[in-house]
Each structure stands twice: as C-alpha cells, then as structure tokens.
Amino acid sequence: MTKLIIGNYKNKKLGFILEDGKLVETVSLSEDSTLGNIYTARVAKVVSNIDAAFLDAGTGDTLYYSLKDNEGKHIFIRHTANTDKVCEGDILLIQIAREQVKTKKAEATANFEFVGNNIVLNRSGVIGASKRIEDNAKREALKKELETIFSEELPKIGLSDKFIGAVIRTDAESVSSEDLREETIKLLCKLNESLDLSKHSVSGTLIYKNETNVSNSIREISKRYRSDDFEVLENDEALISYNIDTKLSKFMKKVVYLKSGAWLNVDLTEAMTVIDVNSGKAISVKDKQQNFLKINMEAADMIGRLLRVRNLSGIIIIDFINMKDTENYKILVEHIKEVIGRDSTRTVYIDTTGLGLIELTRQKKSKPLHEVLKG
Q: Quick one: three-class SS letters along 183-229?
C-alpha cells in the first residue's frame, strides 16, 4: 500500500511517501520554488577560464550558466556585441534548472523543459524515449510519430526553433495518437508564448511560472509509483496519525540505526556525502562473511531510502563493511544498482575504489530536506 501524506511540517508544505508503512521519500511542495521558471536575465559576468557566465534574473541570487553546455542554444533578448558569443550586459532567456544548494549557485539553462503527461518537451534537438518502455518497436514507433507531429505542427504554430526535442514518457505507451498530438501542441504553444513574450521584456521579467502546485505534484508521484492502492491524505492530522515526525527524525540524525543492530554514520561535507556502515552488535560468530553481506545489503536498502527522504545529492561515498569474498562484492554492487534504480532522481553507480569504497552520484535539482526545513 502506497500513501502520500501531505501537510505542514515545521511550517513547510511537504509530502511524505510511505510504502507498507515505511517512509521512502519526501517531496517539497513549496509554491515559491523558482525551479522550472523562465526569466529574462542580464549577464553580470563572463568567466572564460571556466567557460561560464553569471546571470542576474532578479530572483535574489546569482545564476550559474554554462557556456559550453548551452553553446549554440543561447536565446538573446538583447545582444551588446556583433558576435555569437555571450557578453557582459547581454540579456538572455533562461530557465532555472537547479535551485541554489548551500554555496552552489542556482543553475540556468537554455535547454527549456515543459513537462506533460506523455512527453517532456525540450530544446535538446533530440527525440528520446523512456527506457521503461521495454518494447523497442513501440519506442521507435512513438519517436517517429512525434517527429511527424513536430514537422506538421511547428509551421502552423510559427515556431522555427531548430533545437526542438522531447523525451517520450512511459505513459505514452498506451496513449492515443490524438491525445499525444493534442498535448504536444499544448507544450509547443507554451514554448512559443514564452519566446514571444520575452521579445520586448526587460531583464528580470518572469516569463513563465512552472506549475509546481500540489495537484500536479500528486499526479507526478502517483505516476511514478504506479500503484492501484495509491492513496492521498492531505491534512495536518494525517502527519500525526502516521507518526511522520518520528519516522522522519530517524533519517535526519548523524547515526541511522538498522534493524539488525548495525548502523550508518552519515557525514555531510561541502564536497560530498560520506556514509560509513558499522556492524555494531550485528556480528555473527558463524560465517562472518555471509553475515557481513547480509548487513551490507540491509544498509544498501536503507541508504537508498535515506537519499530519497533527505534529498541528498552530488557525490556520495559509501564505506561498506569489508568483505573478503569478491563474489559477495559483486552481489552488493548489483543490489546497489537495483536500489538506486528505484529513484526518480537520476542516481548513478560510478565505481568501487581500490579501498572498497562505493561511489555514487545523485543529480542536484532542488534543496536537500535539511535546507528546506532551515529556510
């Protein structure tokens, strides 16, 4: 049974996802988030040695804008020089791709995204499809269908952006051609309206407000979990009846205990998150290596939940209990990959170091939970 409990927790609107009574994820439902918003922004500074610019969009913080990642895609509202390069004083049209996290500046991009039920329209110039659509023939057919829709509808809308692209979402697998076309046109019109509105706008103008309301968040969450038993409880009393404070406090501490008696030490540094697995009193005299594997597997499951509950991102280093058996390490690595595969935020297994440390990265998009609660 999957439940989404929505309420005001420490004066913040949050959603808590429970599976069979276990807290597995939290979602910030703040309406004042700038993530996904589109602004006109003035180029305050260009730093050549890092191939980036810093922008002022009137949001109260400086935005990082990668010149390399956005090369050729810049949308100039005002250009101060006779060059295709971004210069100080230029005004660009940008979207907030990542909110400010600690000292990491918020990130702006020219690769706009408009999220629909069946596709995510973007400016990648490429049409891709969700890997969750396992039928390859269906995936290719959907991509060709979307190519046809673009070629037929773009001239009607008057949109000449050569970078139009999209990611076909899992739900498109069962959608009708009419519904796919209708949604695509709607998203193309949003992009076109943003481009038109920006043409005569001054720097710091909010051109498009991302739809981050509670109902849209609920819709996205219910799709991800794809459960017939998905239930939404939107009231503060539900936070109490489901003992959310106790469940959450377990994850917010430096030491997170496991059922076996082992525990995790969680250290948040400026550069990375370091998690150390300690066996504690969970050591069995008989067959220690199998016991270590069992504890490590349990720890991996908890770490997967920890990352989602606290929304930790960036580099994550995990020091599991040392195992002599290389086959057991392979089993653990495969389990870690399966665990992070459940995460809706892109999380990648990078490597196991010579010292046996496992390195993951988790995409940074929004503030970690401790920053949300502090702000």
A: HHHHHHHHHHHHHHHHCCCCCCCEEECCCCCHHHHHHHHHHHHCCCC
